[in-house]
Every structure is written in C-alpha cells, then in structure tokens.
Amino acid sequence: MSTINYSKWDHIEISDDEDDTHPNIDTPSLFRWRHQARLERMEKEKREKEEFEKSRLSHQQKMAEMKKAIAEAETNKTAPEVPKVAESDVPALENLKLEVSELEKQEAEFRKKEEELKKKEKLTPWNIDTICHEGKSKTIINKPKPKEELTEEEKLDRQQNFVKRYKEEIKKFGMMRKYDTSMDYLLEHPHLVCEETANYLVLWCIDLQLEEKELMNQVAHQTIVMQFMLELAKQLDTDPKNCIRAFFSRIKVGEKQYMDAFNDELDAFKDRVKKRAQARIEEAMREHEEEERQKRLGPGGLDPVEVFESLPDKLKECFEKKDIELLQKVILELPKEEAEFYMKRCVDSGLWVPNANEGSEKLGVQESGEQVDEDKEETYDEPGEK
C-alpha cells in the first residue's frame, strides 16, 4: 500500500497569520499589502502561462499547415496523372522543409519552457488563496409548494373554523401595544400568522368603529403589523411564520422610509374602516326603511306616503283636513282620466277605502284612524295610517 506524500504541505505561505512584525508597523495594513502583492504576483504568473499557451497553440497550427503543404507538394510530384513539378517549384519545397525544421526546433524549446513552468508552479508555496479550491459544486433550488386553490365556500369554512378555534388568541394579539410583546406572543403562537387572522382583525376593526370605540385604533395597528408580515412572506416566497423575527427586527430599527410606508398604510386602513362602517350604517338604515315601507303598503301594493306626496296640492289638502265633501268636489273638477288615476292610486295604497262598512276587514281599517261618511260608505286614511 503506497504511502501518502505530505511534502506539498511543507511550504505554505499564509502571510495573514504572521505575527513577527515590528511594533511600530500597522499590522493590518502590512497584511493587506502583502496580500495585494501576492495577488499581483499570481496574476502575473497567470498571464505568463496564458501567453505561453497561446504562443504554443499558434506554433502548432503553423507547423500543421507547413506539413500539410509539403505533403500536398510531394503528392503532386509523384502522382502519375499530374505533370511533374517545375524546376522553379523545387526551391519552394526545400524552403518549406527548412521552415518545418526550424519549427521542430522551436517545439523542443516550447516543451522545455512547459517543463520549467510546471516545475515553478510545483515549487510555488501554497497560500490562503490557493490552499483550498472548490472540488465540485451543486446548486439545489427548493421549489415552493404549489398554493392550495380553494373555492369561496371552502375559504369561508376555513375562516369560520379558524376563528372558532383561535378567536381569543387573536383578540389578545389585537390589543397588544408593544412590538416586543407582540413578537414574543407570535413566536409562541406562530399559527396566528396567516390570512385568517388578518381577516378577523379587519372585521373586528369595523365592528369597533360601529360602536365608536377607541380600541379600533390599536386593533388597526396590529392588523397592519399582520398584513406587513404576510406581504414580507410573499416577497421572500416563504412561510409567513418564518418572517416574525425579520419583520419586528426591521420595524424596531425605525428606518424612516419603512416607518413612513407603515404609517401611510395604517392611516389608509383606518380611513377604509371608517368608510366601511358608515356604509354599514347607511345599509342598515335602508333596510329598516324598506321594512317600514313594506308594512305600510296598501292593498294594491303602493306606499301611502309615496302616493300622498305625488298628489296635487288640492287633493293633499282634502286628506290633511279629512274632508270628504271637499275631496268629492276636487275630484269632479279634475279631468276624468286624471281623477281616475289619482283615486286608483289612493285605493291601492290604502289612503281611500271605499265601502268600508261592509266587512270586518274594512272595519279594521277604520280603527286605524279613517273617517267614514255613512251616506257614501267610503273612508280615507291619513298618510301612513291603515
């Protein structure tokens, strides 16, 4: 079994580890100068080797061309189909052979030079830049897992289940005020760093704004904290749980550009919450008004308030005074088609109830405030009454 040759380790030049320097000399600077000088020397040796290889390659190409030319000349001279070479071509052939002879001598010099370079390279001490080199390299790219595509129903179910399970933990995070406290809490509960938490915090902010509670401002701040972590995870293409320390480290440094972006987003979010809360209030009012309107609808499906507002002033006066005689007089003064149009709307809305005394349902209408003319057997209500 052959022994290992350790002789190549006998001379190693690592100037960065030397400590035999004069006390008046700046040691770090000296090491930098030595290192720079070594790099320049290595670069010079590299250029010398590259020039040698280039010259040798050119020499070999030239020799191959010469030998080919000689072979072609000799072939033409001896071939029976080709006329003999003229006497004037003989000196040219001899010159080619002389040049090849010179090139062969140069080839010997090139081989000698190559041996010298190899010997010089072998005797050159190793240093910090040459003692190690990469044996082989392998790059592995971790492909992120494909994102799970969920339907709207599945997303809603996931959101509801998550909130049902972690609602109290989310609320506790939403009321925190210090970055250190928030970071420690999320490190203990990393499952909270997700879209479901951010969604719940947004809805909670809207509810707090509807109740006009100051807590909304603090929950809004924590909402933006969560959204910034999720956005950072998207930029880094990693799990949001891996971004907890990275986000809080950056936010605690307080870099102006980053803090400005954070505060701008926070202000914009609060504004969106207030608008959404106001939209909810207006929507609730519209729903309430519609419910009241549905309750007011007359037998023909018309709203008595709307019908009353659409009447001419003279007809309005009749209903306001509850004067049946005046109503009959005004109706007679109107064109027939117009009178029929208004009276039909009054009947459909319940403002005018003809033959109110004939049935229990008609009498029920009377109890709501209508007045009855016994002779006419007709009744009318005040706007909004039935």
From TrEMBL:
Assign the protein's first listed, main location to one coarse class.
cytoplasm
Q: Where is the Cdc37 C-terminal domain?
A: 296-385
Under the heading InterPro entries, the entry gives: Cdc37, Cdc37_C, Cdc37_Hsp90-bd, Cdc37_Hsp90-bd_sf, Cdc37_N_dom
Ranges where the Cdc37 Hsp90 binding domain occurs: 137-292
Is-annotated flag, keyword Flavoprotein? no
Q: Which Gene3D superfamilies match?
A: 6.10.140.250, Cdc37, Hsp90 binding domain
- Cdc37 N-terminal domain location is 3-139
Q: Which Pfam families match?
A: CDC37_C, CDC37_M, CDC37_N
Q: Which spans does this entry mark as compositional bias, Acidic residues?
A: 370-386
Which GO CC terms are listed, alphabetically?
cytoplasm
**Annotated localization:** Cytoplasm
List the residue ranges of the region (Disordered): 42-68, 357-386
Q: Which UniProt keywords apply?
A: Chaperone, Cytoplasm
Question: Which SMART domains does the UniProt entry name for this protein?
Answer: CDC37_C, CDC37_M, CDC37_N
Member of which family? Belongs to the CDC37 family.
Query: What is this protein's record name?
Result: Hsp90 chaperone protein kinase-targeting subunit
Q: Which organism is it from?
A: Sinanodonta woodiana
